[in-house]
Amino acid sequence: MLSVSGVRADRADVSVLDERERRRAVKFVREADRHSYLAAHIGLRHVLSRQLGLAPGQVEFIREACPNCGALHGRPAVAGHPLHFSLSHGGDLVLVAVAGTPVGVDVEAVPDEQVAVDLSTRLHPGEQREIAAAPDLRTAFARMWTRKEAYLKGIGTGLSRSLRADYLGSAGLAALPPGWNVLDVPVPAGHAGAVAVRGTAAAARVLDLPAAAIEGEDIRWPQ
Fold it and tell me: Is the pTM of this model over 0.85?
């Protein structure tokens, strides 16, 4: 987990990014969006670097086949390595998930109430009931939305799959899509986070990524 606001925008170490990432970064109109993008993608490279024993700039990304059409625009993957990963940035936070099986992660800032009310109507009926019954509608919606997006990233469809198709609420493992576990990720107030893992993972270990790593400094990784 990384706090974007802790990264100095003018110190982001863009040297680790590939040409495609650099081109995309300069296209952002809003400086805040560029800042978030750079923090997220530089952070991702450092996380994968540690996992794979490569320099951050040596990590090469590819796309897996789309489960809908078979074209190569599905989940991102690392060329030549079986490690699975997922990246999300929302609000002030970046989350990166890594696993030995397909995985998806999502983090969002808690929206205002009208956004939560409007978007909750797109979710599974069971999820809508849980949100409506919650004492804090905004937080309940954000939690449900991140669980849904994490799962859809994990299976590789993203939002091309109907948000009503799968139940990702709180009724226990038996109610989740077969073969998947969805876990809430503890994040700072004002945000919600979730990770979806294919298999039976019982917990998610959360480590903080020091902002100094994004700025190109040598760091001591948390154990």
Answer: yes
